[in-house]
């Protein structure tokens, strides 16, 4: 250990956190935390600089990327990263930033419980009482072949009667050994099998079942295995085992906005499937309200400020929307993609339809003016070329000619 070096541990716990949120953790850390643009960072006194959690994670991800490229013999640009289900918007953004800094381009975030469920779900699905019966049938056939056929496999296929007898004997032995230490099995001379008697102990049954029962997924690797399965699906690997796999991830916490009275208005409830997009309309709450500020929170507390603050959005209402409180509505849209990254949009309700209506009214006015002009011209022409005026004009012309 060198005094000027800083050993960084558990950088993942710092992702997307503020310095205030990590105040209680500081006493357990061998390095000093500091503030960097509102987020926690690691102080590096020897270099007179700081390191963000994203930068530290990027170093680890870059090492993993280089190792994979050395093993595969080609460059790797895409990845599936697992994150704790409780990671909020800021923490997910920090994780995406770390992956981008490491050189990854196509990045997919996957909740760790979802990844573990995928790994467990794609294991051997054949485990039931009938599978134990199959083990016992194989054991009985092996015992018969050893005694009656010199250890050679019995000629197949067995008759239907023989198969039924073996299945019934296996079921009886299994049930009996659940309460007794051993059982005697007697097979009649039927279907090409000579009469055979044997004993089976509970210990022997347990040893026969051990290869089937004593199997489990490595708890340390299950999340990584799930991420690998998701990566295989996204890359289009032609494996029959993946054909029926449908991954549906959900958001761990509700997302909503703060209302004028301070309460939390949930737009996307927790456990909603992603990707998702929800739009909700709200009334103006003041007379001649010129603008709206949308503040987004994440959590399940009824008071918005008791939840995790995510972001805010300001937009100005059009002049034709400046009316009494509740007279006009504005729409807020929250969208979350497959990575759990949030997008916020806001705008006036039915603004496009009203703009189109305004355009239509404008053209109606123009058309009205045009028609009025045409009518005036028509009246002028009728008057100018009327019969009485033409007769008067002819008479006036004749008088002038006589004077000449």
TrEMBL record:
Transmembrane segments: 363-385
Keywords assigned by UniProt, alphabetized: ATP-binding, Membrane, Nucleotide-binding, Transmembrane, Transmembrane helix
Oxidoreductase in keyword set: no
The UniProt record lists the keyword Metal-binding: no
A single MF term (Gene Ontology): ATP binding
Pfam families reported in the protein's UniProt record: HSP70 (PF00012)
Superkingdom classification of source: Eukaryota
PANTHER family xrefs: HEAT SHOCK PROTEIN 70KDA (PTHR19375)
Family membership: Belongs to the heat shock protein 70 family.
Protein name per Swiss-Prot or TrEMBL: Uncharacterized protein
Organism: Aphanomyces astaci
Lineage, uppermost ranks: Eukaryota, Sar, Stramenopiles, Oomycota, Saprolegniomycetes
